[in-house]
Amino acid sequence: MAEQEENQQERTEPATPKRREDARKKGTVAKSIEVNSSAIILVSLLFFFFVATYMLEMTKYYSQVVFENIDSVFLNPDNMQAYLQLAAGVFIKIILPFIVTIMAIGLAINYLQVGPLFTFEPLKPKFSKINPIAGMKRVLFSRKALVELIKTIFKIIIVGLIAYYSIKGDIADYVPLMDQSAVQLLAFAGKAAFILGIKITIALIFIAILDYIFQRFEYERSIRMTKQEIKEELKQLEGDPQIKARIRSIQREMARRRMMEEVPEADVVITNPLEVAVALKYTPREMEAPKVIAKGRKKIAERIREIAIEHDIPIVEDKPLAWTLYKAVNIGDFIPEDLFQAVAGVLAYVYRLKNKKLA
């Protein structure tokens, strides 16, 4: 017990996305049953308020048909099934709208709380669930059980007080009921029950909001992680080949994007002409030698040429030099001494073109 408490105290770090996803797959989500219950009660009250007249009229109509034709009904094994089907059809016509409405609101509230989730994990047998000792500990000693007990007592008290004061406030209206008809009594009882139900439902909704906040807190607390667990998870993620491949792909894309942003600063682009392209930059007083600021093959080379054309950067076709620069010099490095003469010839040609344009 002390070890468990110590482990719980160590869980100070918020859950990672992977931990949350794993918990969700196991059916561990933040969900309040009180939200479902209060929503269903509220919708039921509103349903009967707007649809009760239709249900009573349907019941009255079919009851009248039955009693008017009761003398012509003869039950026997041959027609029993037909009468049962008829009775079931009538029952469905009256009750089905209510059942569909309650099912729809129940599914909607569940979806709003936990989103789309379908898993059989909570149904799998676990020894901790069938172990009576562990069950007694959960029922008697867990904080969740204590909260449920307090919540139940609080609901009983709230519902009792609301019912008491509602009845007490309407007690003066009860005496005249002795002189009223059965229909008037039924109407009064229905109105009083509806008002009482709304008051109780409002109180239950308030309790449901508090319970949902508590459930969210408990959920976040239950999936907290220790620093060691986070380190182990990071190690597992880093060791995943798919994760590594994804990281490398992102890194390559970022490097490619940065490289393309450098191309407009180039002085010349040397091409193969279609296979490779290498962009060079040289500032005589600032650089000891020309520098490769971008290079690539095929589609990347094509994009480098497009950017060069857009920014009026000279493109020089030199197959041997382009291949040599592409293979021998990394992006951001200065060209080696053995290539000075070849590159100097290209730069001299570019400068002559620039001077002609300026002239």
What is the average per-residue confidence, as pLDDT, rounded to a whole number?
80
Q: What is the number of beta strands? A: 4
| Spatial order of the strands forming the largest sheet | 3-2-1-4
Domain count, please report it: 2
How do the helices and strands follow one another from N- to C-terminus? Answer: HHHHHHHHHHEEEHEHH
The major beta sheet can be summarized as:
4 strands, mixed
Cα end-to-end separation: 90 Å
Assembly context of the chains: single chain
- The number of helical segments is 13
Helix vs. strand class: mainly alpha
| Rg (CA only) | 40 Å
Assign a percent range to the helix content.
Answer: 55-70%
- Uncertain regions spanning at least 5 consecutive residues: 1-8
Shape: elongated
Strand content: 5-15%
Element layout with pairings:
Layout: H1 2-10, H2 17-25, H3 33-68, H4 80-114, H5 127-130, H6 132-141, H7 143-169, H8 182-222, H9 227-239, H10 241-262, E1 268-271, E2 276-281, E3 291-297, H11 299-310, E4 315-317, H12 319-328, H13 340-358
Helix pairs in contact: 3-4, 3-8, 6-7, 7-8
Brief digest:
With 359 residues, the protein is mostly helical. The chain has helices at 2-10, 17-25, 33-68, 80-114, 127-130, 132-141, 143-169, 182-222, 227-239, 241-262, 299-310, 319-328, 340-358; strands at 268-271, 276-281, 291-297, 315-317.
